[in-house]
Amino acid sequence: MAARRIVLDGIEGAEGRALLLVSALHHAASGLHDCQLVMLRAEDRAVRAAVEALRWDTGLAIGVVDEPYGVATLQGVALFVAIGSRTVHYLPWQQIAACGVPTLIALQFPSADAVDRRFLPLQRAAHDPKIFASMVLAKVRPR
Amino acid sequence: MTIRPGNIHGEHHAERPLVLMVAMEISVHAARWLETVRDLPYRFVLVPALGGVPIREFGLCRPVGSLDDIEGLPEGFIGVWTSDLLEGEPDAMPAPLYHRDRTHIVRAAAITRAVETLKPAVVHSFEVQSAGYATLKAVETLDQSPPWIVSGWGSDFLLYRKLQEHQPVLRRMARRMDAYIGECRRDHRVVRELGYVGPLTSPIPATGGIDISRMSPLSDFPPPSMRREILVKGYHGWAGRAQHVLSALHIAAPRLRNFTIRIALAGPDTAEMASLLRDHDRLNVLVDPYDPDHSTSLKRLQTARMTIGIGISDGIGTSSLEAMAFGSFPISSCASCLDEWIRPGKDGLIVDAHDVAAISEAIVLAATDDVLVDTAAPRNRKEIEQRWDAAKNRPLIAALYEDVLKTLDRNCDPSIRNLSPGSQEGHDLNSPPWAIAIDLAEASLVPSRRIDE
User: Nearest-CA distance from B161 to chain A in Å?
Assistant: First the structure.
């Protein structure tokens, strides 16, 4: 059976919180060794270094891929994961919808136009990598 | 290069060995180290690792380009090598994470020329990825190179060995360096794993030490329990995790509304997040503008109940030491070596950088437990006075320089080197013979209390 593919958003800055996402992976690592993890849009050197440190510290096989979101990258993906701030507009919604990919997206300080019932329960998780990690594992390993 | 006024009467310094310092000219740490060792019987020449003019903290400087220039250096001056620092193509070495490339980092060729011209008794590089890598390349190029002391700062070995591009360079460096000075005891294991076989001394902070006699007593400042400010180190990027701290403050917000939170050295994204904390959590968060005057940041510590510095990699952060000096309760991550200076849970708190909830709990504890912070303050001050005092560390550094020069003397009897039992185990045959000599002489290299492992 092919390993479940998890795609992670690597944007770090005003909107993306990839470094917090990497922290969550430190907590979730032991439950993700049989998954194929791929981070896209990790252009920030700090994020790439954090991913390398994650590999070193946990042995997690996580790839960093330099390609845009498209059908090829999202087709068959088991979960799309991101942590953001205020808005979700920076995420590739069209491609996600086109490929029917399940998502786990937590948003810090959601702005009025981004407030959506899907994100409200995740507001604590958007700040707490341990809680976010448990949510990732719950999605990947449903009981 | 600005020539600063000073004693115009040159003094003959022939009897003083020359230490060639390769260090970032903008670094207060390097300047403080120089201040610590300035009065030792050595002459110092700085090779600016970023190719610029030294900041004023380096004191009296004068450009030098020859041995005659060094002979003519007035008393109290250090020389600065200025030739061709950034000439030619950047070296083919990986760049530090905080630089895009090595365009603005000194070329190895400039260091090579400085060594060939000035014939220093020892080369001492400070910080690894800028100054250290350039020095490594220079040392590898030279037919005959002087002994090389490497000062590793903070994350230089701990974090960078995890990075694929850097690890092979660090291995080359560990095998090639003749003496290593680290900030943390935990780094001893790291450099040994990378292949270093030379002596290990007790850790010394990157700054060497500070002038304790000029520091106001703790009683001049309000007791920590009366203070209502929380100081956050604002670095967020390749090592710092300031936004994790802001998330922790967000979680703890209801318990912190009677505090003012000051964030120092924040980038634009962290400043933006601070404004979100103000709006959403009704927290009084101030983002302090950068002030090149270091006394400003010291004043902040004197009114801060706690100082928080969180990152995935660090040494003994200078801000943590300064916090301890001024009674500000330190909170740091386990990637630092603050635990070598405090008793965690009593004198400060150590948390996992990836665990925001734990950071939040630590902040609330330090904000609410008056006895904890008041008890820690005098103990931490005493620790600083004992271990970060330039007057106490100066003779230790002097002994290190002296012993390195003595032991690494190339005229040392080769038959003695070969008698070293340490040379049989774990020693790389490609490493220089004086590394073996150091193993042999390790017991007599430094005062016994400074020898580790």
Answer: 9
Looking up tokens 């907590």 gives A27
| Signed CA dihedral, B186, B189, B190, B192: sign only | positive
Look up residue A2 and give its DSSP letter: P
Query: B269 CA to chain A: closest CA distance, Å?
Result: 5
| Distance separating alpha carbons of residues B130 and B123, to the nearest angstrom | 15
CA distance B389 to B152: 20
The four Cα atoms A83, A87, A89, A91 give a dihedral, to 10 degrees, of 0
The mean of the pLDDT values for chain B is 87
CA dihedral in degrees (B175, B177, B182, B185; nearest 10)?
A: 40
| Residue A106 binned pLDDT confidence (cut-offs 50, 70, 90) | very high
CATH code of the domain covering residue A98? 3.40.50.2000
Q: Which of B338, B363, B387 is the last residue of a domain?
A: B387
B253: containing domain? 215-387
How many Å separate Cα B267 from the centre of its chain?
22
Q: What is the CATH number of the domain that holds B298?
A: 3.40.50.2000
Contact B276 A13 (CB under 8 A): no
On the question of pLDDT at B31 being above 60, the answer is yes
Are the beta carbons of B80 and B64 closer than 8 angstroms?
A: yes
> What are the structure tokens assigned to B238, written together?
């390749």
- State residue B420's pLDDT score: 28
DSSP, res A59 = -
Question: For residue B361, how far is the Cα from the chain centroid?
Answer: 30
Residues from B in contact with A at Cβ < 8 Å? 97, 159, 162-164, 236-238, 241, 243-244, 247-248, 250-251, 268-269, 272-273, 276, 279-280, 312-313, 353-357
Expressed in percent and rounded to 5, the helix, strand and coil fractions of chain A are 40, 20, 40
CB contacts < 8 A, A to B, total 71
Residues B186, B299 within the same domain: no
What tokens does B130 get?
């800028």
Average pLDDT over residues B62-77: 95
What is the ipTM score, two decimals? 0.96
Closest chain B C-alpha to A121 CA, distance in angstroms: 15
Average of per-residue pLDDT across B168-196: 96
| Residue B417: per-residue pLDDT | 28
Provide the residue type at B305 as one letter: R
The one-letter code for the residue type at B231 is L
The range of the structural domain enclosing residue A83 comes to 4-140
Question: Would you say B174 and B196 are in contact if contact means Cβ atoms under 8 Å apart?
Answer: yes
